[in-house]
Write a structure and sequence with these properties.
There is one protein chain. The protein is mainly beta. The chain has one domain (about 25-130): Roll (Thiol Ester Dehydrase, Chain A), CATH 3.10.129. Helix content is about 15%, strand content about 35%. The protein has 1 helix and 6 strands, in the order ββαββββ. The longest helix is centred in the middle third of the chain and has 18 residues, at about 50-65. The protein is globular.
């Protein structure tokens, strides 16, 4: 399967009106992105849906690999939710590649509150390296 970016990704696509429109910065092996959820991202009243949080953590790990020149897909992800994330709370997602193999990458990400650094959630993933056809 050929992996292509057409700017419609739910997490980072700029053309997707319903998407999160995340943007990323990469420096010295660490990727970051800022995100502030709104009421439209909630599950229970005032609390950001866990699927949205998982999406952010997953995308951050994928983008960390892409920043290193690798095109991966997520094979496995394990998320630990530490605290609820309420609408309007500014956060920072951080991700890094922990281990690189010939076919598999291990990555770690976390979502932290911007004002005090408290961890909202963290994830570990195994990313399968795509062999894009030329």
């Amino acid at each position: 399967m050929k992996l292509e970016d057409d700017s419609w990704c739910f997490a980072c696509g700029k053309k997707n009106e319903c998407g999160l429109k995340l943007s990323f910065q990469y420096s010295e092996g660490k990727l970051t992105s800022e995100f502030t959820p709104s009421k439209s991202h909630q599950g229970y009243k005032g609390i950001t849906h866990g699927g949205i949080i998982t999406t952010i953590l997953d995308e951050a790990m994928i983008q960390a690999a892409i920043a290193e020149g690798i095109m991966p897909v997520t094979a496995e992800i394990n998320v630990k939710f530490k605290r609820p994330l309420t609408a309007g709370e500014e956060t920072i997602a951080e991700a890094e590649i922990v281990k690189k193999g010939s076919r598999l990458i291990e990555a770690h990400s976390r979502l932290i509150r911007k004002n005090d650094g408290v961890v909202i959630a963290e994830a570990d993933a195994k990313l399968l390296i795509s062999k894009n056809p030329a």
